[in-house]
């Protein structure tokens, strides 16, 4: 709705958010009006980046329960703190959520919603990959290996059949099957473009490049949040699970609200964020 501050180190935004209910016949849709603050800081000598939000009341955005059927959600406190650690290139991420959803929602459904929100932190892993790939150079079409010159996928060595679709990695130039490549939306030279990159070339920066300085990591985090706020309809990111791991050991309290929603519960978890990989603790 409004941008109050937008500088290199700070940002303050007032937003109105509405959330569609997956089961409208049982649970009504929600909305909220939070003010979100982003700030670069130093905590106990450690560089950090803080994102916090809390609900506010605005005359131009009243309660829409009667007109639109939306239950107003109150954010008492919500945010994340990114801090450098004693290990170079590693950020510690702490996140806290204290929300009153209003109305009456089963505690198990609240748990699922908050679990999904915490797991969304894994989107940072893909964002860091996009940042690394955007800084790379790619081969022009004439320098790619001709598709007709290969009868097998260069990566998995699967033979191409009559119905097989061949594709080319724009990083190494080799011919691959569709299972071994991903299409990335990258920002290169000021333009958004789609690039096909094989799994091996996607992972190469993780293993071969030097560890990014903490300031670079924090810049990426800041850019991540700024993109979320500045784009009216940000694309849904694809979650990549490092090394095929799907488990996420997150501890959540079991929220319970009365009909008036007057007892908010705290939901806290902590993460260890690597610039090359997001790990959960």
- The general outline is extended
Sheet with the most strands?
8 strands, antiparallel
**How many beta strands in the DSSP annotation?**
15
- Kindly state the percentage of residues in helix: 10-25%
Which regions have little confidence, pLDDT < 50, spanning 5+ residues? 205-211, 231-281
If you consult CATH, what is the topology of the largest domain?
Alpha-D-Glucose-1,6-Bisphosphate, Chain A, domain 4
Strand order of the largest sheet: 1-2-5-6-8-9-14-15
* Estimated radius of gyration: 22 Å
What is the helix tally?
A: 5
Distance between the termini: 35 Å
Q: Could you report the average pLDDT, rounded to the nearest whole number? A: 74
What is the total domain count? 2
Strand proportion, as a percent range, falls in 25-35%
The quaternary organization reads as single chain
In the CATH hierarchy, what is the architecture of the largest domain at level 2? 2-Layer Sandwich
Global structural class: alpha+beta
H/E series: EEEEEEHEEEHHEEEEHHEE
Question: Which CATH first-tier class of the largest domain would you pick?
Answer: Alpha Beta
Explain this structure:
The structure is a single chain. This protein has 281 residues and is an alpha+beta fold. The chain has two domains: 2-123 and 214-280, 2-Layer Sandwich (Alpha-D-Glucose-1,6-Bisphosphate, Chain A, domain 4), CATH 3.30.530; 133-208, Herpes Virus-1 (2-Layer Sandwich), CATH 3.30.40. Helix content is 20%, strand content 33%. The strands form four sheets. It has an eight-stranded antiparallel β-sheet with strand order 1-2-5-6-8-9-14-15, covered by helices on one side. A hairpin with a 3-residue loop joins β1 (2-6) and β2. Residues 205-211 and 231-281 have low confidence and may be disordered.
